[in-house]
Design a protein that fits this description.
The protein is mostly helical and 332 residues long. Helices cover 63% and strands 9% of the residues. It has nine helices and three strands, in the order H-H-H-H-H-H-H-E-E-H-E-H. A three-stranded mixed sheet has the order 1-2-3, covered by helices on one side.
């Protein structure tokens, strides 16, 4: 898997390098600030691709004593670095747009620049679709992030081509800095989004979509012995996930049987969520207490203190807190 991810990101790096050179050629032909904006953003593709290669290399290294959860967190550094570079490029593009407004520079040889931009945009569209599909297939946020960034480049290049066509047929020179200004704003927004995603991952922000899928699986396949599930936490390390949770089981179960119940829960989730990356579990078994009887569905419980009253549907609200269902006090 590691070698395949490296091959994919190396393809991205080489293609981005060639396309960046072509865009700078278009700029020197036309002196268009909008084309320069596009070329500056493409430099970021090259730098980010190089950083992504290193992050994928680290992600593939096995766990060790210094990194017991692996090296997957470096992927969040990768997309954070890419986001910061995109943000800086957006600022530079806005600066150049204002500069051309005040200096009133003329765009030359629009037609040649237009053909080069069209060719590089089609190549970038293929690359972005390729990377996004590979990122989903491998559950790699680095490859997906790189594909998202390049797709942004495709959108901005499409707007640029429309602007160049307008300039070619009308001669309106003001279109060039105006389009560059819009592209700069779009690039700033996308840089911010990648930075936000990086910070969320580094701060272990919970992936609520994955939590919802986990809860749905547990609700649909629950066993009667799983009296409740609580204190669930999901942490992402690259394309690996670490899931912690507490499962309340009948207190009289032998240790072997309790272990089998927790192992069956782990096996179930791995099977139902196949394709979401590797999942590692730490499941803590809690013994039931008398107040658990009213939500316990075991029909032949030999030590029941109270009759069964109602089943609990697991949701974010009762699975994430560190509190047994049916108990008013937090679990210690």
């Amino acid at each position: 898997m590691l070698r395949k991810e490296l091959r994919i990101i190396m393809i991205s790096l080489v293609v981005s390098f060639v396309l960046t050179a072509a865009k700078f050629m278009a700029y020197f032909l036309t002196h268009s600030v909008a084309i320069l904006s596009d070329a500056l953003e493409s430099i970021i593709n090259v730098v980010a691709g190089a950083f992504a290669c290193y992050s994928i290399y680290l992600t593939g290294k096995p766990k060790d004593e210094d990194h017991p959860y692996g090296h997957g967190k470096v992927e969040f550094f990768s997309i954070g670095f890419e986001g910061a570079m995109i943000f800086i490029a957006g600022i530079l593009i806005l600066f150049k747009a204002f500069q051309h407004i005040f200096l009133d520079k003329q765009v030359e040889d629009v037609s040649n620049g237009l053909w080069i931009e069209a060719a590089t945009t089609l190549a970038n569209l293929w690359l972005a679709l390729f990377l996004r599909a590979a990122g989903r297939r491998m559950a790699s946020i680095t490859i997906s992030g790189n594909g998202q960034h390049i797709m942004t480049d495709v959108y901005s290049s499409g707007g640029l081509i429309a602007a160049l066509l307008l300039m070619h047929f009308t001669g309106w020179q003001w279109v060039d800095p105006a389009v560059s200004f819009v592209l700069g704003i779009v690039i700033l927004v996308n840089g911010y989004r990648l930075l936000r995603r990086s910070i969320s991952g580094l701060m272990d922000e919970t992936d609520m979509q994955l939590v919802d899928k986990l809860i749905t699986v547990l609700n649909n396949h629950r066993r009667d012995a799983w009296i409740d599930v609580h204190n669930m936490r999901v942490q992402q390390y690259g394309n690996n996930y670490h899931v912690d949770c507490h499962v309340t089981l009948p207190y009289y179960l032998p240790l072997v049987d309790a272990h089998e119940e927790m192992k069956s829960l782990e096996t179930l989730v791995n099977k139902e969520l196949e394709g979401h990356g590797d999942m590692e579990y730490f499941i803590h078994g809690d013994p039931c207490i008398p107040s658990s009887c009213k939500i316990c569905r075991l029909a032949e419980c030999p030590v029941r203190s109270f009759p069964f009253q109602h089943a609990v549907t697991w949701t974010r609200e009762n699975v994430l807190p560190n509190k047994k269902h049916g108990s008013e006090a937090p679990v210690l």
